[in-house]
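A quick word before the example. In earlier lectures we treated sequence and structure as two separate objects. From today on, think of them as two lines of the same record. Here is AAA family ATPase written that way.
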Amino acid sequence: MTHLIGHDAVWRHFTSALESGKLHHGWILAGPRGLGKASFALRAAASLVDAEDRYSNLIARGTHPDILTIKRLPKEAAKDDDEPDTNAELKRSITIEQIRNLQASLTTRPGLADKRVIIIDSADDLERGGANALLKSLEEPPADTYFLLISHASDRLLPTIRSRCQMLRFEPLNHDQMTAALSDAAPEIDPADLDALIRAGKGSPGQAIDFMGLDLGKLDHAMHAIIQSGDPGNDLRVALAEQLSLKAAQQRYEAFLRLAPALIAERARRMDAAHVLAATEVWTAASALANRAIALSLDKQSVIFQMGSLLASLQTHRAS
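And the structure line, produced from the sequence above:
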């Protein structure tokens, strides 16, 4: 079944509740995006409807009749003869109609098992009417029906939904867990890229995987060069700004905004007491700049040059 890395404690908590025979009907799987909450939900659903592992092929294909996953639908429905387009633009929300259709299906008995699991991916996407409709099912759940609500920002869910569910909190992975997860997902990955991806992922394998194929090893090398030399003539900063400000380099630009503050934090941890405070201030400025850059659509070349200057300032704050 689905391989999980870094969430053993969460899995033990869920399976302990399952084995007790008193499993709560509603669970919120809460944590930052990309930690593997959807994989966890599928594994948890399988443990409920297919404990003997007889229908793993159906579960893997998403066709097991007793595991229903509710997601945002494509803006344009596929034609009858067409395969679903995995890259299609999606609607902004999970609609009330989807939840009402789900509720209608819950009036029948499960198909292959004696239990049914509903996965909402993600509950953050529920429109207000859909959230209120789902609340009714959580208040009066059908017999042998379990709800797994994936949430990347659980504090934004309706308090009434939170109060009717048990919370499972997923934490970012540490360095060793990230190494294992990314090596498992891409065994052929270059070691130089692996280190950069771990920093870019910030504890989230899913987000790190989104940056694969962007040659982050070279980007990492360029940032280290700025720190090591201080870039006295601005040549390295100018070259980096020219490369990353191109329209085709948008993903590498976004990766740079993640990598630079993470690299500064890594350097700060290695500073002696005389320099760590100054390096921490550099990290604070870099993090704030990265957050503003996307939110406010700041000029890319200016952002890259400023971030490069923050990196260069570390040259005077040597690591111990």
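Notice the following. The beta strands are 26-30, 67-70, 116-121, 145-151, 166-169. We will return to this example when we discuss secondary structure assignment.
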